[in-house]
Design goal:
Structural class: mainly beta
Largest sheet: 9 strands, antiparallel
Number of strands: 9
Helix content: under 10%
Number of helices: 2
Shape: globular
Distance between the termini: 50 Å
Length: about 180
């Protein structure tokens, strides 16, 4: 039968698996995209993503190259950029993420209220890298800087500037940092 079945082996062939014979996708690109996010259909806009520029290149299967950037907010207060690759056949990947936030948005403040740590206000810069070791583990390195920050931890207020530099090996199966 000509019916195609979706499985991991076919997924490693990339998006071409979904296309008719002799048709191939080498790249998908979004240029200057715009997205609004709502809690429910018809609800007020919760957040706006704009200046979305994303490229997914699949020119050397089974490796998917990804890179892109976007701005957050109707009047942008944050930027996010991502670059990396994902080998769909070997389940290996490496991604780099950089983001800068001029403020903490209200929806994130609301979400954090039930957590032990609440970031009430801050200018934030995050640089993060993740690289697979095998199917269960990944090396990570994250550097975070907070300026003009107010953080609540278990009812205690912390105000000022803070820095964090964390690296280790994360095990997805046990959900633990091993080193």
């Amino acid at each position: 039968s000509d019916e195609k079945k979706l499985n991991l082996e076919n997924l490693s062939q990339g998006p071409d698996f979904l296309l008719p014979e002799n048709v191939y996708i080498e790249q998908i690109q979004i240029v200057d995209g715009y997205v609004t996010i709502r809690a429910a259909a018809g609800a007020p806009v919760l957040e706006t993503l704009q200046e979305i520029n994303v490229r997914a290149a699949f020119q050397k299967p089974p490796v998917l190259q990804l890179d892109g950037s976007l701005k957050v907010g109707q009047k942008p207060y944050a930027s996010i950029s991502l670059a990396g690759f994902w080998n769909l056949k070997q389940a290996s990947y490496q991604f780099n993420l950089t983001t800068e936030w001029g403020r903490i948005p209200f929806w994130l403040q609301e979400y954090q209220k039930s957590h032990f740590l609440v970031l009430e206000k801050a200018r934030v810069k995050l640089i993060a890298e993740i690289k697979s070791v095998d199917e269960e583990k990944a090396l990570f390195h994250a550097r975070v800087g907070l300026e003009e920050a107010r953080v609540f931890v278990h009812g205690t207020n912390y105000d000022g500037s803070m820095r964090l530099d964390a690296k280790g090996l994360f095990n997805f199966d046990t959900k633990t940092v091993e080193r």
